[in-house]
Amino acid sequence: MMERTDRHFRVLVRTLTRRSLLYTEMVMGRAVLDGRGERDMDFDPLELPLALQVGDNDPSRLARCAELAQARGFTELNLNCGCPSARVRDGAFGARLMLEPDRVATLVRAMKAATSLPVTVKHRIGVDEVDGYDDMLRFVDVVAEAGADAFIVHARKAWLHGLSPKENRNVPPLRPEEIFRLKRERPSLRIELNGGIESTDAVLAGLREGRVDGVMVGRGIYRDPMAFADVDARVFGDDVAPTPLRAVLETMVEHARRWVARGGRVHDVSRHVHGLFLGRPGGRKARRVLAEAGAAADVDTLRRAIDQVVV
Ligand SMILES: Cc1cc2nc3c(=O)[nH]c(=O)nc-3n(C[C@H](O)[C@H](O)[C@H](O)COP(=O)(O)O)c2cc1C
User: Which one of 3.20.20.70, 3.50.50.60, 3.30.70.2330, 1.10.246.40 gives the CATH number of domain 7-234?
Assistant: First the structure.
C-alpha cells in the first residue's frame, strides 16, 4: 500500500509473522529503471519473502524491472492491475489494464521471459461496466495462458471515473463469492482473496475448505497489526507463540536507532507504530507524545511514547 507498506512497516510486520509474503508499495516501472524508485527497491533481507509491486504497461520496461527485481533479491514480481487513481487511469495502467486482457498477457509474457521469479497479478473483480463474473473469468483465462503464477483479487470493482481512489476502496460492495467461484471453476490456478479482512479469524474463514489459496490483507494489519500476531501459528501451523506487544515495540525502537545511524529520521519509523497502540491502556497518551513531536521525533520520543503503553 502506497505510503504504508514501506520498509519500516514491513520490519514491524516481520516481528509478527515470519511466513507471510510482504509487498512493497506500488512503484512505477520507469522509477525502478531511472533510479527514482531506489527508496522502494532497497530493503533489509529480514523483510523477505518480499514481492516487488510494479505499475506499468510497457513490456520492455517491465522485462527490465523483472531482471532488476531478481538481481535485487525480491521473492516475486507483482503487476498492479487494480489501482484506479487518475494518474494511473490516464497513463493506462493499474485497474485500467483490466479492460485490456491481451495487453496484460503480453506484459506477463515479457516479465516471465526475463525472470525465473514468480510473476503475479493483483486486480479487481471488475472495472466500470466490465464487471460481470464472465468478464473477470476472461481476464484471468487470458492472463493465465501467458503464465501468470497467481491472481490476487480485490473483491470490489473500481470505477475509473467519478470515484476517488479512497471511495473505490470503500463504496463498491465486496463480492468475495465471485472469487470463490473463480477458484472452483479454475482449480489449477492460484487464486487469492483481498478486501475487508480484519483478523486472523477472517483469514482462516477465507481459506476454509480451499475456497482460495491465499488471503492478502491491506488496511486491517495497518490499523491493528496485533490482530494478526497469531497467523504463523494458526494459518501456517507453526509451533510458535505470538510475539508480545512489548517485544514488537522494542524492535521498532532498535530499528529506529539503526535507521537514524544510517541518516534517516525517527519519524519515518514512528509514523507506522500508531496501530500498535490501538485499544491499549495508555495508547492515546502514546499517540499524543508522537503527534506533539511530529517530524521532530527522536529515539527518546519514541521510547517515551511506548513507555506510556501498559502491556
Ligand atoms: C493507503 C492505501 C494505499 C494503497 N496502495 C496500494 C498499492 O500501492 N498497490 C495495491 O495493489 N493496492 C494498494 N491499495 C489497495 C489495497 O492493497 C487493497 O487492495 C484494498 O485496500 C482492499 O483490501 P483491504 O480491505 O485489506 O485494505 C492501497 C490501499 C490503501 C488504503
Answer: 3.20.20.70
